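Handout, page 2. Input:
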Amino acid sequence: MINTLITSDTSQTVLEPATIKVAIIEDRREIRDGLAMLISGTEGFKCTGTYRSMEDALPRIGTDLPDVVLCDIGLPGMSGIDGMRILKERFPNLLLLMLTIYGLAALPFFFGGLVITFAIARLSAHLNAVYASDLIGAAAGCLVLIPLLDRLGAPGVVLTAAAPIVSDGRTRGGPPIGR
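Output:
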């Protein structure tokens, strides 16, 4: 899953990073759209679909099957827990991750962990330095996150984390957003 072999002819082989496809099932539009923007704006990830409810997701999610599904627990209609049982029956290899409002504040650490995992896979000769950097970053993140959660609450923390991206008005070096 880390690399995809691409060959244009028999004399040259190039390894390119694989893209991790993610679908989001979340009833709150601002959270759903924010996660989709974060995921699609992160190199190596692609948002394959956003769904307001499990009833919306179940018939459509298989058209561009993701590798990972981020799903809210408290959805209108069918709960996320019940719907994920159905998804697991239909797609046994699908990685299912449950979201709660406080779980959203941990998403930067989740993606940071994925980046570190890929870095370790590629930089095994420098494993000690990579691991030490990961530990220092995680500790610093926790020291910042806990007071922010107390003061702002989880939605406020997510919006605060997204503010530098939105204020810059750019994604991945592309043209300004909304201009």
